């Protein structure tokens, strides 16, 4: 019951984040779809975590080099996702209002991804590995 409510809340927040992203692209005043390339960052963001989880055998260790490297790569992906619309707005490929909407969408989506791993990444009876 609690996991189902968490899944519904996470899907709702993901929909809100994608709505911000689409508003930054599809509103007639903005009308440029370059910010949709940020979707690539959304898809590749969890990959370092998945690789580190698969490679590292000792989940009880406080820190491992593989896990720290995964955090580093994930941080680089997230920072790039926030920097991409700012660069697009700076070179005037998109308007600053669209940049703001995309940045708001980024914040919501990345918090949703973080929430997914906090809720379903504990490794107890109900985890993301079952999906």
Overview features:
5 helices, 131 residues, flat, 70% helix, Vps55/LEPROT, mainly alpha
In short:
The protein has five helices and no strands. The protein is mainly alpha-helical and 131 residues long.
Describe what this molecule looks like in 3D:
- One of its GO terms (cellular component) is Golgi membrane.
- This protein has one domain.
- Helices cover 70% and strands 0% of the residues.
- The protein contains five helices and no strands.
- Helix 1 (2-26) runs antiparallel to helix 5, helix 3 runs antiparallel to helix 4 (65-90) and helix 4 packs antiparallel against helix 5 (96-120).
- The longest helix has 26 residues, at 65-90.
- The relative contact order is 0.19.
What is the overall shape?
Answer: flat
What order do the SSEs take from the amino end to the carboxyl end, as H and E? HHHHH
Uncertain residue segments = none
Give a count of the beta strands, DSSP E runs of length 2 or more.
0
Proportion of β residues?
A: under 5%
Helix content: over 70%
Helix count from the secondary structure assignment? 5
- Distance N terminus to C terminus? 16 Å
The main sheet comes to: none
Class by alpha and beta content: mainly alpha
Total domain count? 1
Mean pLDDT: 87
Q: What does the radius of gyration come to?
A: 17 Å
Organism: Neopipo cinnamomea
Keywords: Endosome, Golgi apparatus, Membrane, Transmembrane, Transmembrane helix
Protein name: Leptin receptor gene-related protein
Transmembrane segments: 33-51, 71-88, 94-120
